[in-house]
Amino acid sequence: MKIAIFTDTFMPQLDGVVTATISMAKGLADRGHQVYIIAPKYRRKINEFSYKDVVVKRVASVPAFFYKGYRFTLFWSRSLAKYLRKENIDVIQLQTPVMLGVHALLISRFLKKPIVGTFHTFFTDPQYTRHIGLNSKLIQKLSWAYAKMYYNRCNLVTCPSESAREELAKHGLIEPIKVISNGIDVSKFDNSNWESMKEKFNPSGDIILSVGRIAYEKNLECLLRCFKFVLEQKKNAKLVIVGDGPQMGELKATVKKMNLSESVVLTGIIDHESLVKSGIFKASKVFVTVSTTETQGITTLEAQANGLVCVGVDARGTRDLI
Hints:
With 322 residues, the chain is α/β, with parallel strands linked by helices. 37% of the residues lie in helices and 19% in strands. It has a seven-stranded parallel sheet with strand order 3-2-1-6-7-8-9, sandwiched between helices. A five-stranded parallel sheet has the order 12-11-10-13-14, sandwiched between helices.
């Protein structure tokens, strides 16, 4: 088949949706399908994703005002519609419910092709609406109304965990909703360099690892408060937080304010290919996530695949994994 995947989030951004999109595109291509990834265009030069039988088609975009690295595209591109019709696309798949997601819905109607919508993110939660300065029960209700209106226009909805499926059904998304776990390629991991990672981050004590966007929805201030209790028992422990995002400045300030500068390491962004080969998983004692918004949590999956004990908040997709 010829499959067009629409996503508002793609390289050079790095997050769970990007990782899931790349894994899915590779998996489909390896099974003999032709894949087209439709993603926002960046003005600066980037290292474009490349894989056999995968084409990346970029759409003109502008920076979003509320979230670092995020882009807005137009709702409709006549040239893109003509391009996909010429390519004789068989099915459309959307990864995100924003501009390109709406674009995908419109093109599916225009081309009269089936569309599959994947629910990756609880964008209805206050932690997400906080990015645009809105945090109320009314906004939550409106967000769920939007999600219902949006995903109920798809021929099929998928999500990565049973807990996510239950919540979507509870809020009015039409069944059947199919649960398809996020895939990870375990052959990519290489922990042969773990000793140098241990030496680099904490040669004399345990490493607690957390990986993800530095953003409100990851609940990182809670993580720092929890880590202070750990330090009471394990004074030589270090918390290594891998990632970057719109709240990096706030996180740095909070680390300093809580007098944790000597015990918390903020690595910044590490691209996924480098991370899975870094050895950081084997160098660490435990993996932790305090996010309450996960539909599944690819970083937790990856930690588990490397034999790490995982600790998380008893909520949603994290509960399904632990």
